[in-house]
Amino acid sequence: MRGWMLAGVRRGPGPLIGTVVASAAAAALTVAALSVAIADTSAPAGRLAAASVVVAGDTSLHLTVRHGDDARQSLPLPAYRGVPAGLAGQLARVPGVAAAAGESGFPGGVIRPGDVDLVAVTAKPGVSPDVLAGRIRAALHGGRDYTIATGPARGDVADLTAAVERSEGQVLGAALIPPIVMISLFVLAATTGLAVSLRRRRFALLRTVGATRGQVRRAILAELAVCGMAGGALGWLPGVVLGGLGVHALAAHQMLPADSAAWRSPWLLLAACGVSVIVAVLSGQIAARRAGRTSPAQALRETVAEGRWPSPVRILLGLGAAGGAGTLMAFTFGQKTAAGQLALALPLLLACMVAVALLGPVLVAFAAWLARPARAVGGPSARLALAAISAQPRRTASAVIPVAMAVALVGSVYFADASIAHAAAAQAGSTVTADRVIAGPGLDAGALQRVRALPGVRAAAGVAPLSVAATDPDLEPVYGETVSDGPLSRVLDLGVTSGRLDTLRPGQIAVSALEAAPGAMGVHVGSRLTVYLPDGTPYRATVSALYTRSLASGDVLIPASAVAGHTGAAPGFTQVLVSGGTPGGLAALAAGHPGWHVASRSVANAAAERAAAQDGFANNLILGLVAALAAVALVNTLAVATVERRRALRLLGRVGASRGQVAAAFGWHALFVTVTGLVAGAAAGAVTLVAVTKAATGSWVPFIPLAPAAGLVLGVGALVAGAVMIPFYAMSRREPALAAG
Amino acid sequence: MGRTGEAGTLGYMLTATADTVEQTSVSAVHAPVVLTDVTKRYGRRRRGVPALDRVSLSFGAGSFTAVLGVSGSGKSTLLQCAAGLERPSAGTVRLCGTDLAGLSQRRQAVLRRQRVGFVFQDLNLLPELTVEENIALPLRLDHRRAGRADIELAAARVGLGGGQLRRRPAELSGGQQQRVAIARALITRPEVIFADEPTGALDPHTAVGVLRLLRGAADGTTVVIVTHDPQVTRFCDRAVFLHDGRVDRVLPDPEPALVARVLHELGERS
């Protein structure tokens, strides 16, 4: 390594600290996401610990879907398919088997007579479980329709929910990595751009001494690589801790098996360093090219150290991004299906953010022009601050951009989530039209009969949550409800748009308009549709109704009699909705059954609203990560940008400005950055927010609760003020000229 | 000190057109820096007063020239165009026998580090490098080995002792910093040294010491100094006066008193 290239890192690391901090944050988040995505989620074998080999009906559903590249897709099933009890006898005859016993009674187990959940096989001494598994597979003619598990895999057969939860949690972990890397790129690009432009004169001197453009570029990239390496090493441990906390939180929310442990491996350190080096070097490409390209004479001229206006290429690219965002917006709102709109939301947000980032200097200049009246109000300090902003819109833009990014990202994610939760709560509150709701254990068909027989009861229906597998168009779990046979329209108002939902008979299915759309299942009333029940049994049905209020009830309704025996639980309901009847009659019935509660519609609805509001855990996790990165970026860039104004500070002190006046000028600057960033970020985020709200709830108006909105504004303001004023006071204490004033 | 790095550049020059080679052999001997009808305009001021207006000048081998003028006369622009740091709007610049217009940015950088030295008023040295490393920088950039003996010799020629080599620029006085800059400019044994107000930030006594050093150390090297300080001309063979981007007059063997009078006159005129 050539000494001159990296001397800046070794001996003058000040301007590079921001880059190290930002890449450490990126590395920590990547490590956390990775350790969740590759967490050790093997479930304990429990009561199967003594078995050498466990044989069950295939615990996954395999399906060939007619689209995309991976046409054959699999999904773990939440319930056992069941195997005939006679299988135990057949397996007992396999050479090397000491004993084989059918076992039942696991969570998600079968209740059909003559079937068992699985067969536990014990090997004779000296026979290895794997050899035995091979023999069993041969005895079962390849064992295509079976899951034959040994070792840690037995745990997944003992607890089917483990596999389902794992796939949810790990999909989330894996899904977090690309946005983290992307946002880190944004964050780092802003920081490195500033760190490089701070030292333009240094690079110019190198050029006059005879460094080629390539040498300057390589020196900058080498510096960034070292910063990335340091950041990766620094971010590794916090990332491991964060990953552990994340796995714990996901397990607590049933998105990972209870005994999961985050992936801990020395490879994570390598991954952390690798990611942050790559991200740092990628993000520095533009800054390095620009530094290499600046003519040395231009950079040496003190007064015009930096061009006032961004390059025409940047403006053109920015206008291109804005145009792209506009086109994408028109395209998004033109999408017929909500799924299509949701799929375009992220690209739309990115396009808006890129446009704001590239056009930042122009926006700043415009905002400075708008802010001119403040000169009259704010006195000489405001005049100073505005003059500094108008003289160097690019500098100010590098502070405004991370503020706008933070507002756009956090705002659109949070308020989209809030809008959906609000709409879900509102729907939950208006979906149930029954007068009373009975909830509790053991609500089965018999209980429903007794409720219906009570005097004055006009209608009663039982409901229970259900998850089925469906192709929409990928094989995915779809959440819905099973409903009892009998009239529904008196107890539920689901907003049926076509077909009828008075009764749902076996062989029929009701689908939400969202799922029925062409981009998803692509069905309409009268279509034939196959969904797969929890134990993998196909349910072939005719679509009898489409409905819009799916946020509370889920996306499919299936008659309870069709799913009985296929859910891994005794047939029954979690709630019975009652129309009519007397409070006394229902109370008397409930009194005879411990655990039953009777609630009025409003109480039940309030409970449903609360449940809907708490459902945003995954979103909150993503939001927390995004907010953390955005805050790091914001503080980082602003602190670097403030320190950079040391010269101005010194000069002001020399010409007789008092400390208070200079503090006010910096304060005005911070206010300008906050307001411009908030407005630009709100504009960039609002487009996406409206698109998502429209897609998920059908309404053009997003729900923006006052308290979080005010919190966002105040939080951004506090971060900006802190990042500007704390370095200011630190610097001004070392300026005697100021301290005197 | 190996000069193998130059073979590439020389080879490049020799493979240029026959016309160029002929001119090279003549001008390289007599004048390492030749400006012909050089005009420089900045930005969009196409109709405004150019910073340089059809300036033709030649700086002979081993000559020691001061370029003088009031602020805004174009003297810094002249230096930057002559050194290839700035591309002229019109006219040709030949540096070390090569037409700069025909060189890529990369080749210009290589030419600078092999055959040209620079001394500026300030910001001469990289603050994070030691004195020693700053002096060796042009060699390192050129992928050459910087021998300890060469560095010590270069430092000794400008009066820097071994104890100062491991220090950082911030620990040195202004005069010492300029000496380091001169040592760095000399380390490659360049044909030309360009100096932009090298004594501008120094007190008169130190300034004279630094100039005497430059004069003594640069024996045989062509030196072009841009300055507004008449005292600098004490060490010069020639003084070139610029006014409004044009060569106003040239004084051979200038006297500081006369130079001061001319400068005052030029100042009155603008």
What does this structure look like?
By secondary structure, chain A is an alpha+beta fold. Chain A folds into four domains: 1-43 and 160-306, no CATH class; 46-158, 2-Layer Sandwich (Alpha-Beta Plaits); 309-424 and 614-741, no CATH class; 436-580, no CATH class. Helices cover 59% and strands 15% of the residues of chain A. In chain A, strands 9, 10, 11, 12, 13, 14, 15, 16, 17 and 18 form a ten-stranded mixed β-sheet that branches. A four-stranded antiparallel β-sheet of chain A has the order 5-7-1-8. Chain A is globular and about 95 Å long. Chain A starts with a helix and ends with a helix. The model of chain A has no long low-confidence stretch (mean pLDDT 81). Chain B is an alpha/beta fold. Chain B has one domain: P-loop containing nucleotide triphosphate hydrolases (Rossmann fold, 3-Layer(aba) Sandwich). Chain B contains nine helices and ten strands. Chain B has helices at 5-14, 18-30, 75-83, 105-115, 131-141, 148-157, 174-186, 204-217, 256-269; strands at 33-40, 52-59, 64-68, 90-95, 98-99, 116-119, 192-196, 222-227, 238-243, 246-252. Chain B has a six-stranded mixed β-sheet with strand order 6-7-8-3-9-10, sandwiched between helices. In chain B, strands 2-1-4-5 form a four-stranded antiparallel β-sheet, with helices on both faces. In chain B, a hairpin with a 2-residue loop joins strand 9 and strand 10. In chain B, helix 6 (148-157) crosses helix 7. Chain B is globular. In chain B, 47% of the residues are buried. Chain A binds chain B through residues 2-4, 7-8, 10-12, 201-202, 205-215, 295-298, 300, and chain B through 80, 83, 85-87, 105-106, 109-114, 116, 118, 120, 123-124, 126-129, 133, 137-138, 140-142, 168, 184.
**How would you sum up the major sheet of chain A?**
10 strands, mixed
Spatial strand order of the main sheet of chain B: 6-7-8-3-9-10
Q: Major β-sheet of chain B, in short?
A: 6 strands, mixed
Q: How much strand content do the residues of chain A show?
A: 5-15%
Low-pLDDT residue spans of chain A: none
Overall tally of domains of chain B? 1
